Amino acid sequence: MDSFPFSKAGLRRYLANTGWLLAENGIRLVLGLAVGVWVARYLGAHDFGVLSFAYSLMAVFSFLPHAALDAVLPRDLIRHPERLNEYLGTAFGVRLFGAVILLGLVWLASGVLETGIGNRGLMVTVALSQLFFPFSVIGLLFQSRTRGKSISLALISSQLVAAASRVTLILLEAPLVAFAWVVVVEYAALGAVYLLLYRRGGESIAGWRFRLDIARELLAGSWPLMVGLLATQIHNRMDQLMIGELLGAQGVGQYAAASRLTEIWVGLAVVVSASLYPAIITSRECDRGEYRERMRLLYQVLALTGVMGAVVVSLSAVPLMGWLYGEEYLPGAQVLAWQIWGGVFAFLTVGSYRWLVLEGLQLFVLYRTLAGMVINVLLNLVLIPRFGIVGAAAASLVGHVVAGYLCDLSHPATRGAFLDKSRALAGLGVAARWMGGRR
Question: How much is the mean pLDDT over the chain?
Fold first, then answer.
């Protein structure tokens, strides 16, 4: 037992420290599944596809209001607490400017895509939500002060407001456009709660100031992550846009319903990684051998969880899609069966992300994300016309294998991670053969 990398007391302490994060993620996963399925059944595959298409278009351009400040702003707020109002005001201005540009790009793109699946008014409505996103800089301030409870309260509140709004619209038999406005309401609620918590702390946004030199500084430090975020969104959302243009709204709805289940499942990897990373970071400063062993354990846990889930879901995909979504969504069962195996490598991608940042390999994060995106888009161009939505799911699987696993071979600093991931996957294969031989 002494060789186990995490002591029981230590593990309990780390889990307690991330309790609010786990609660927020748990509520998001439950609401996303329960309410999301109800919305999909109510709208039907066609209208759900139209709404998903609009959200995917907005998501592709979401790197603009995000400006990838999540990594750099908390650091700068810690380094320069005396310039808090300048940094917050500048970050707010940068994100607001990005949101306005996003809105313009969605307006232009929707004019082109309207001839296919698109509904220009619906697309622009969904994009309006990003005008409230700049208030999330308050969440980054809370992050710099380790106020995880405040961040989780804001996120949980906005999710509950959005869920209640969607349920109310279903009961009122509301039209499709009303569900687009719920996206705006969710972001507005998040901004309102952040403002309320900020003011309760005795602070006010009236003192915020925009500084052009700070804006340049923030953007200079975050541009690789901005490009990476763009590549990630293209990887995750371009398939739905391409399906919409090539196959129509029905195909988008069926594909999006399956993708939603996969996204919820992959969210579990985020929770597991966030819970265990404090222990991993601590060991890095104390014992490099233990640090490496803890990373190996994390990969083993993620690989085991991912493969077990993939086996169960792929074998039950048809009854699962039929039970959750109804007969209209059954073509999405094959999509789910492919995507859930991509989730195994998405688990490993999530597990290694913070390790790469910790080791100063942010540019490698960008390169592997770009590689996965390029492979995914190219395969979509080939496979969607021939195999429909199943082709898009296969392209997504290959993209995750490349980004989360094979790219580790390309850099000397990540080849050790490649070996650790390979051992985790190979160990599952050995265990499966052993269990098979015992029967």
Answer: 85
